[in-house]
Amino acid sequence: xxxxxxxxxxxxxxxxxxxxxxxxxxxxxxxxxxxxxxxxxxxxxxxxxxxxxxxxxxxxxxxxxxxxxxxxxxxxxxxxxxxxxxxxxxxxxxxxxxxxxxxxxxxxxxxxxxxxx
Amino acid sequence: xxxxxxxxxxxxxxxxxxxxxxxxxxxxxxxxxxxxxxxxxxxxxxxxxxxxxxxxxxxxxxxxxxxxxxxxxxxxxxxxxxxxxxxxxxxxxxxxxxxxxxxxxxxxxxxxxxxx
Lengths: 117, 116
Description:
The complex is a heterodimer of chains A (about 120) and B (about 120).
Chain A: E1 4-5, E2 10-14, E3 19-21, E4 24-25, E5 32-39, E6 46-52, E7 60-61, E8 64-69, E9 74-79, E10 88-96, E11 106-107, E12 111-116
Parallel strand pairs in A: 2-12
Antiparallel strand pairs in A: 1-4, 3-9, 5-6, 5-10, 7-8, 8-9, 10-11, 10-12
Chain B: E1 5-7, E2 10-13, E3 19-24, E4 31-37, E5 44-50, E6 53-57, E7 64-68, E8 74-78, E9 87-94, E10 106-107, E11 111-115
């Protein structure tokens, strides 16, 4: 069974509009962390935002926010005011277990976002 | 602060050959993780090194091996290359402990390996 599911292979958004990228996850561990990374065509993974399973508030980092719905096991990324430079692959990833153990990341298949001028 | 670097950037090998990929971790980081990302896929965890010892391994055969050096840089070695080994190999460094909330992994630009 997939631990991280990203159901949108590709998304289009108009510049300056908001876009939501979906991510659902599956784990029985009460402690986990959810990450979103951006991967431009150059290949480097760029960290965007993190949400811990015990965090009470939804994470925000500038134009990025995470819509965390724990009961539904979803962690959707919201990008506000899209910019042309946001065009890239976006990956959702999960760490099972407490952060202190520095465990591996489990990744989804990604969503390709294209921002139109 | 120096970021994560990887070498070489691109590499072409033939089936059966051996390859060594290198990664220099970010200053102050003591943990290195390696991932394989096939075309159109998400990264797959290969293994992680912490203080020069393997600290977790994904579902990869023994011909994938690694090393971590005292300065925390790392190597990924792949023997008997197969066509399916063609992928982007990503190295990520992080700091275990230190009170960080989530041990963010910082990634290098990757090495693109093509096996012919």
